[in-house]
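User: Show me a protein chain along with its predicted structure.
Assistant: Here is one chain, sequence first, then structure tokens.
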Amino acid sequence: MRLITVAGPPSSGKTSVIGKTFEAFGKRSVELAVIKFDCLSTADEQYYEKKGIKTKLGLSGSLCPDHYFVNNIDTCFHWALKEKVDILVTESAGLCNRCSPHIKEILSVCVIDNLSGYHTPKKIGPMLKFADIVVITKGDIVSQAEREVFAFNVKRVNPKAKILHINGITGQGAAELGKLFLEANDYESLDDMKLRFTMPAALCSYCLGETMIGRDYHMGNVKNIKLD
């Protein structure tokens, strides 16, 4: 089975990109599935189900959604195998811009939009830096010059990535991404696989539920700002 991880900032167009990419498969006999990872709520599973795509939803609640992803991806992979899925796509929002749910050897995609600002690519971190493919969306809203500058800044952060421009409304550019999905490596297990980058460091007292403010309550893995 082919597994593809798709990550990106909230509202960058991940769901639309995945949906249009699947539409680009046309009448090909490909069994598709999506696992949507989020924090509190999402209606994206309804979007996928209307397109006839098998969908499962994982809400992390108080946990980091990408830590939640790592804890559950093996279970999701085996579920997809049992369902005889050909391509399983996981969708996750890097809410802290530090998470990176990308796995070595597994095709990884980062979705980022032109409206997020020129300097955003260097702020996103490993989620973009270690992706195989960077999809840039909302190019129809900005000028050609702005698109080129933004793509240049993406390339500076991840010079090895393949950059694709996809319109989440019309689907323009999605066929090329679909071709890359079909060419992804086929695996029967995630045993012995590793993340491409470590998750954010933990664990501090606030991770465990502390609410009191003050240094007397700072315990665990903490970092203090230097203002001298």
